[in-house]
Amino acid sequence: MNKIKIFLTVLCLAPLSLFAAEPGMPLDSVPIYQTDNESLQRGAETFVNYCLTCHGASFMRYNRHRDIGLDNEAEVTEKLILTGQKAGDLMLSAMRKNEGEDWFGVAPPDLSVIARAKGADWLYTYLRAFYRDESTVSGWNNLVFDRVAMPHVLYELQGEQELVVETVAGKEVKSLELAKPGSMTVSEYDQYVADLVNYMVYLSEPAANDRKQLGILVMIFLFGMLGLTYVLYREYWKDIH
C-alpha cells in the first residue's frame, strides 16, 4: 500500500519536476486582455504569418475568429488564410511531420493548447529569450528552453541577442544583450509578442470569455434566488413561534 502511495505521489509531481528542471531565467509577467479584440486580431495575424508554417492549431477553425471581431468569412479569409484553405477548415500546419523531424530533429508540436500547457508568462519570456549560439544546429539557443530545436523566426523584428555570463557572489548569472537591433524597438517587440501570446491564450480556450460571462450570470441568478428563498422562508414561518 505504501509503495502505491509513493508511486502516485511521484506520478503527480513528475510534470512539475520537468518544468522545475528546465534551465532558464525568471519569467516575465505578460499583460493578457482577452476582451481586447484588436490585440487578439494582431496576434492572430502574427500566428498565421510566423507560426502556422511549422506548427498547427488543429483544434481551431478559421471561421471561429469571428468571435474576436472579424465580421465575416470574407474578412477571415483575407486576413488569416494564406494557403488556399477555406474559412471552415482547421488551422493545420503546412509542414508534414516527417519534414519537421528531418529539418529540426523533432516534429514541431501543435500549438492549440500550448498556453494552457506552458503558461502565458512562459511563452512571453521564451519568445523574447532567443540568442545566437553557433554550437546548435539552427544557430540559436534560448535561456528558457536550453538547446531548443526551434530557430528564432522573429529575429528580424527583435534583432540578435548575445548571451552574457557573469559571476555574482560565486554564482553564475546569465543575461541577454542586444548585439544587433531589429526592425522594432524593444518596447515595440515586447508588445508584438504580448499580442501573440494573448492570442495563443485565446486559442487554448476560445470559449473562455463566454464561459466567464455565463458564470457571472449564474452567480447573479443564484444570489437572486437566495434572496427570494429567504423572503419565502420568512413568509412561511412568520406565524410559527
UniProtKB/TrEMBL annotation:
GO annotations of cellular component type:
membrane
Q: Which residues cross the membrane?
A: 214-233
* Primary location class: membrane
Keyword Membrane recorded: yes
What is the required cofactor set for this protein?
Answer: heme c
> Which keywords describe this protein according to UniProt?
Heme, Iron, Membrane, Metal-binding, Signal, Transmembrane, Transmembrane helix
Q: Where in the cell is it found?
A: Membrane
- Cytochrome c domain location is 38-207
Which GO MF terms does the UniProt record name?
electron transfer activity; heme binding; metal ion binding
- Report the co-factor binding details: Binds 1 heme c group covalently per subunit.
Span of the signal peptide: 1-20
Provide the binding site for heme c. C51, C54, H55
Tell me the protein's name: Ubiquinol-cytochrome c reductase cytochrome c1 subunit
User: What species is given as this protein's source?
Assistant: Nitrosomonas marina
